[in-house]
Structure formats: C-alpha cells, structure tokens
C-alpha cells in the first residue's frame, strides 16, 4: 500500500518565493529579462566563408541598437575567438526594412552530438546595451527540443553563460542561410537587411506606400483546463493542438537550460488531488521568463518532450486580472506506480517518508542525485540472487519501481559548459553519500526527462540568485575508521585505483584528462602508464591512499591496481616500495613492509597493473617466497599472488592480542580477475543476465584459483587460507559459485550487510574475502569501510579543480572507487623455532625516496611456481541455484519507476568508463575510470527483468 498522501500549504512548508505563501495573488507584470520581442534574430548566414557570414536582427524601424553585442558560439557552446562577436557602435539603428544584418563570422559545422538534440550547429546571440540576453538561436537541432548550453569561458559574455539556445530546426546548404518565417525557420538564399515573408509595399498615386490596415481584433479563446491538456494517459490527448491555459507559476527556469516554467491550476493539489486522476500542472517551454507566484495565461502548442507533456509557448505569458488561490504541494511518499506519478507530473509535491540516496555518480557533472523510496539503496540483482532467477527479476523490478532523481532545475554540464558555476549539493566536508537519508525541506515540482522522473527545485540551483533553494538535506554517514572486527590479527583487500608513482609526464606520448584551467590531471591514453599526470596530481592521489591504508591498519593488506614497475624498465617492486615508504613516513615509524616478488615471473597475467601484499612486521611475518600463478586462464587478467603468513612471537606482538595456541600459519592469495566491460565468444558475450562480459573467463579463472590455493596450502602444510581481492563478480554470480562449491565461504556475505561497489545506481560487492572452513572458524568479525564507492567521484583526485566548487580534500574519502573489506581473526603466535623468515624488509630509512626503493629478493634458488593451465573452454557450468541463498537482506518489495538514466555521453574529460586491464583488452583502462570495465553491464541490467515487461510498465514511453 502507498502511504496516505496529505498536503500542506506552501506557507506552512516555508517554501521559497514568499509570494506563493499568500492564499491569493493580485495580477502583476511578469519579469521580462529578454525584452519580450522588441528585437529578435531573423536570419543566420553561416554556410559560406567568413566574408559572407552575417546575423540579422529584426526590429521596428528606427530601433536603436547602439552598444548591442551580436555574435556566435560553436557547437560546444563557446565563443571561438574575439572575432566571433562584435559590439555595435553608437548610432546604429534598424532601417526602414525592419532588419539589420551584422557581419560577423559564424562556424559552419553541423553534426550529430550529445550536447543538444538532433544534428545541430552553431548558435547566434544578441545582447542589448544593458547586458540582457535578447535572443539565442541555434542552427539545426529539434524544434522545441534541447539546444546547446553556452559555456562559462572567458570570451563568453556574462549574459550568455549557462543559457540554452533555442533550436531552429533548420540548416542551410553551401551559400544559403536560414531565416525566420511566419511558419518556421527555413533555408533559402541570403536576404540581408530584409525580413523574410515581408510583402512588398504597393505604391499609391503619390508613389508612397499605403498604410497597412489595422489587424482585426483576435477572437478570445476560452482557456483549456490543465487537467484536460494532461489527460490520464502517458501522453496528452491534445498533442499537436494549440491551446490557451491559465495557472499559477510554481517554478521558473530562465537560466540553466530548461528554458521555461511550470504552472498549476489555482487551488489544486493537497489532499484534494486524486492518486490516479489527471495532473493539474504542466511545463511551459518558453524563452520568456515568468515570476514564481504570478497567475498567468499562456498560449502555445501541446507536445511531448522526452516524455514530459508541455506547452511550447507562442510568446510571453500574460498576467490574468483576477485573484487566484495558491496551489498546494501534495505531501507524502512519492508514489511508485507509474500512473500515480503521471497524475503528479508538473505539480508541486513535498516528498516524505524514508528516502535513501542510491546514486551520486552524475551529481558532480549534472547536479542530479539518484533516490530510492525506503531505507535501502537499490541492489545489484546478481549480488543478492542467482542471475536469471525469479528473485533477480523481482529485485530488478523493485529497483525500477523505487527509483527517481532529485535534479538541480537545469541541464547544464558542470564539467564543461558550466564548469565555472559551483555544482550544487556537493562539498568536500558535507557530501551526498549513497546510503544517506534524504529529507525534503522544501516543495519540488515533478518533472520527467530522459527516461527518468525528476524532482525539480523551484529554480535552477546553479543560478547565483538561487540562494538557499536546495530542497533537501542529507544525513552524514561517514565513518572515520573501520569498525572493530575483533581477533588478534586482521586482513583486508583494497583496490588502489591505478597507483602509479611513474607519472605521465615521465613518459612520451601521453594524453591527459585536464582540469578547468587546462592543467593535466590523469593519463588518458597514448602511453604505457595510468594514473596521475604529474607529481602534483600524484601527491593528491597518494595522500588519500596513504590516509586510507593507515586507518585500515590491518596485519595483512592485499592490493590491486598498483603499478607493475617491471613494465617500465624498473624493479618490479619499485612502486610497491614507494608506497610503503610513504606509509611509514606518514605513520612515523617502520610500521609496514611489503612482500617481495618471486624470482620466477609468469608468462600469463602480466599487465600494467599487478597484485601485491603489504603487512605489519610487528604482527605477522611472511614464510618463504611468494608465488605467482602462471595459468592460461589469466591471459587477460592479473596473475594471483600467494604468500604464507604466520603470527610473530608473543614478545614482538603489539597490544592487538596474543593468543594461546601454538599454531600454523595461513595462506593468503590476492586476485584481480577479468573485468565485465569487454570480451567476446562463447560464454563471454553479454548474456543479458546481469553478469556482463567475459563471464566464462572469470569462471575459468576462479577454477584456476581454487586449484592454485589447494596447491599452496599443501606446500604450506595448512588448511587455513584466505582468497581475496577484486574478483569483478557480484556475490551470487557464476564465478563465485565455483568458490562456494570448493568449500570457501564469502565472509562479506556472511558477516556484513554492506557493499564495496556502486554501478548504475545499484550497490553490490565486487571485492571479496573468502575463507576455507578451517579459517572461517577463526574469523571474529568483518566490516566494509564505505569510504569510496558511496562518495561522489567529484571528490576524487582525478576530478581536482574540474568545477568552480573545490571538492578535493586530503584524507581517506574517495581515495579509490572500491571499498576495503576488513576481516578480523584469531591467529595463535608461532613458535620462535618454526619456519625460516623471508628476506629482510625495506631499508630502515623511512625517508627513502620513491626513486630508490628497497631492492627485491635474489633471483637464485627460487622455486618455479606451478599450477593449473589451460584456457577456458566455453560457457561455465550452471551451478545449482539452490546452493547460494542470499544472506544479506534485499530491498523490500514495493513499487517505483524506471531506473535512473544518464543524460548521454558528456564532453571530453567527463565520467567515461573503460576496462581495467591492459593485457588482452582493447581499451586499456585509462583514467578517469570509476566504474571501469562495467560499461557493458548496463544493457544486461535493463534486460534482466522478465523480458523487460515489468520494467516497461514502470518505465515511461520512449
């Protein structure tokens, strides 16, 4: 059952725009920052060379245009050079023809892209002498659709920044222009200084023009009720018709790209609104501004824009000369049935009940926050249920019902065109974290766009005048350290996000992702390193990683995605030694050491990144040499690394604990299996069940790890073992079943309710610690320390200074994109006379620079690792679905809409994804890659739900 929806007035809600707080409104003039048609762009000639380009303004004869600024922006929304804009000199006026052609270069490129709808080109603008934007017209695009948003570049006029162009829908061939006609923009021969469609004056007997007859007065049109325009279906029953509607302006977006305002029937909303009836609110698409709280009348054409019913206004709204009762917000839980959401489209609401943040990946780019009804995030279905099972389909349908977005009232990209505008919702010290509780403090308007229901604030939050209009607050869920996990020893896994002390500027050919000032941040492509572009960027990355590891503070820590320095002509352990040096410098003592690479290195599983172990010598010590698995199954992943550890003698132990048994050591194997983003062939193509690509390869790798682990346990003479690392497999997927059937237990699944990763607005665990039966009996506790996956990617070192709002801060938060999983266990002290110790640790000099790491071990006398070989042979055997019932609770079975979408690909340098392997994969795994290797999974998630029938019901059309 959906909770009873109640209402309260905007005054009781303390709503922004105090003029809504009064119960009635007197008529008042609308705000008019765009000169209400005194002048407009009437022709754009761009399809020749610069000498034939012009932008024509139409206005009454004699209109003074002194000091007006006229120019053009490129397809990217920026003024290309000073020559592309001009200021009209004093005395400039419109001639008798009613038009003035301004000679100024205009870019002539028209192409498909993601920043606007359809094939689109440059845009022309006119700004009056007071600095107000008069007109902004785009070549091409979709009429009534989304135009390009002007950037915040230094050459872009202030009045233009963040404004969205109006698509003309017209484009011209060579030598032609586009001109505004009575019906629409159209291509034709250039007619500078002449208004299109203007009839030639007929001469009189004296040779002068006869005065035009006065136009007949317009026949009054009876207003159509907004509810009749909306109807009760997904689309308006009046689509394509011209209507006149009246309503109170509830939200207005003159800046930010939405280009319009919402109106709602006076007195509507609140308790009186029916759950399944027609909506009483609607969006008005208009270049003219409207003041919140005014009662207005608007005439225009009804249509659907990306699934939202709207009126494309033919002109400015006019005030209605009568009082109007304020609409009320509908209060209560945001409904989960599509029809009930349709019934609220365009209306004020005040959401209540339990609401949880489930996605913040696009927050730093588009100012949107993914929300879910209830007290839990959306779950990766295959993290809680077997792929393709009825339970997985139920979970995905539940995800679709519960999800929606909190938006920012705009369409601006805060990493490109709006990079100089502070991004809303985020800050370094008060982040919006996945899993946090959201509480609405102000009403919002229900919108729909790009396949998602969006709760819009009443004004664009990127506007400097928005003030405290942010409509929601979020609980702070940060933890400064992992929870206590008990035991006298501990182990954890941590993906360190392409930790490369060898920076891009030390190599040749590197290309970079850059900050808003053009300074390189991270390596994009073109060379053999990943990670930071230079020493300054690396210092920011290392600060976070060092802070995180020293707070994780485990006896043993496995690492993934650390530089394999042997690929760069250095000792294989050079980067690992550099990290240990930095950790010890920060700790103020020789707290950490690292496990040396073995003498024998594998032919398979070598990559730009590698696996590794570091440990605390005061708590444990390695026994014997480490071993790397050389198996054909790892031709496209990183070779697993095995090491036996034993607790140190009691006299050398810290206050962590002592234990009483004389015990054997334990084997630990760190793994980084093939990612989900690439792979072809039998079993490796995306099957659409949520497991992504290369599933058969991961199954083969899991089998190889199980055999390798058995061998290493036999060599060590122990049945105590941990398998840990980034397995690129969610908890109930096929590769994990291999481990379960071999007798391993997933400690994260059994001992925690937290997840290590976020993708597509869904949480799940790709990082695991598995234990043998003998080891499991010694496990005392576990904790996922959510410092990374739940934080906005905007806080990452790779996004430093990409927006005007500074989000970077030293410390552990967003040090990576995966969260560490910490496990406590009981390890009895080893007798002082047991197995020989490994080679000595790094130099005692804690300040040794990264350029001089401790030498690796001798290469003489090292045993050659042996293990299983053989490439995968097709699809994995499907394990028994009954063998792995999820122990972590999934979300409750409630009802909600389509999963949150992205807004399409962004500009260069946006949050793109790639695979995380360099060996055997084509994309190379360059940064920024939060969510790397999972791009192909999105399609699988869309298909996992019962032939998309349930999803289709919850997701709106298109």
From TrEMBL:
Residues 162-176, 189-211, 829-849, 857-897 have a biased composition (Low complexity). The keyword Nuclease applies. Residues 1-28 form the signal peptide. This is ExeM/NucH family extracellular endonuclease. Residues 927-958 form the Gram-positive cocci surface proteins LPxTG domain. InterPro entries: Endo/exonu/phosph_ase_sf, Endo/exonuclease/phosphatase, ExeM-like, LPXTG_anchor. The chain crosses the membrane at residues 934-954. Residues 906-922 have a biased composition (Gly residues). One of its GO terms (molecular function) is endonuclease activity. Residues 144-176, 189-221, 674-696, 829-932 are annotated as: Disordered. Keywords: Cell wall, Endonuclease, Hydrolase, Membrane, Nuclease, Peptidoglycan-anchor, Secreted, Signal, Transmembrane, Transmembrane helix. Gene3D superfamilies: Endonuclease/exonuclease/phosphatase (3.60.10.10).
